[in-house]
Amino acid sequence: MLASSRSSLFFCRFSSHSSSSPSQRLKMGSSYPAGTLKPSSPTIVKLKPIEATPASFAEFGQVISSSSDGEEYGPHDAQLELHRGVPRFYIMHLEDRELKFSKITHHASVTQCLGSVGGEDWYLGVAKASMLNESEISNEDGQKPVQSCCGHYYMPPHPDDVCVFRISGSKFLKLNVGTWHAGPLFKKKSMDFYNLELSNTNVVDHTTHNFLKHNKVVFMIEE
Question: Which of 60, 128, 156, 198 is the most exposed place for a label (fewest CB within 10 A)?
């Protein structure tokens, strides 16, 4: 589900590279009392959204649009992995999800599907899945694998690997197992989304990386 909207009692808060969209880095200024050390300010990374299409989103999952009634099942349909638990399909109401984020989440046991009720525009930050199997658990490029409290190992996502997609119209996203995601985000005050995951996804399968804490980075979506 969301990287920033659940209680830390249930989340795996372990944390710790190429983006398809251009980014611009700025520094945020702050004032501190005389005689105190000023901590390094976070870098603001501005990302231009990419329109979500089956081709542009292929590294992260699928974009599913409408099909004719009676059309047979095929590779254009959502390829789901729901066998590790009880599927849960529900409408999720969200408010005040401004176009910025500093946390990103993945689920290790399910393909999550998200779509807006009514087909209004929304945004999702993503990075490719980075989970590791046992044979891959070793230091890579100086990075140390992290074990999630959910049990699996993963390599922390690099800020350069993050990009943002715009989802327009009557379509939904299917996220591959392990795809990092931040959102849904939107410009309106509130929106409703249909959400397909497992009944216990947000309790036992929620691993979050905090870019602000570990990379001193905040992402902002810039149209």
Answer: 128
